[in-house]
Amino acid sequence: MVMQPRKQRRWLYKTSKLHEKHKMLHAMLSEKLREKYKKNATRVRKGDKIRIMRGDFAGHEGKVMEVDMKSGRIKVEGATITKANGTEVAVPIHPSNVMILDFGEIDEVRKRILER
Fold it and tell me: Is 30 in a helix, a strand, or coil?
């Protein structure tokens, strides 16, 4: 059965549950991390070192400053634009367009997730 686009968008932004939004914040791992943890992707967290793979900032590497659960976007250090009034603003980036190069801090919860 094919779902209408408006219902897909409604689910994505309005009616999806918290555990489903966590899945939408997954990003692929680098080759080194894939070999170490035997996983292809994991959730992006604040403090992770990432490389942007697509878009205007492709190739840029930096740390994750903020993860926005509501909009499903992340903000990266150095990926900014200058507004007309001169202020610097971080550009929101979708997690599917980034690669995790290194984990910022591995606490007990993340350790259990990676060892699953």
Answer: coil
Domains of the chain, by residue range, sit at 5-115
Q: Taking phi first (over 0 means left), then psi (-120 to 50 degrees means alpha), and beta for anything else, what does residue 56 get?
A: alpha
Amino acid of residue 40: N
Gap between the Cα atoms of 105 and 103, Å rounded:
6
36-76 pLDDT tens trace = 999 999 999 999 999 999 999 999 999 999 999 888 999 99
Q: What is the dihedral of CA 98, 100, 103, 104, to 10 degrees?
A: -30
1-33: pLDDT as tens digits: 788 999 988 988 888 888 888 889 999 999 999
Distance of alpha carbon 108 from the chain centroid:
20
The torsion angles phi and psi of 36, rounded to 5 degrees, stand at: -70, -45
- The percent helix, strand, coil of the chain (3-state, each to 5) is 30, 35, 35
Does domain 5-115 fall under CATH 2.30.30.30? My reply is: yes
* Per-residue pLDDT at 14: 84
What's the DSSP call for residue 15? I
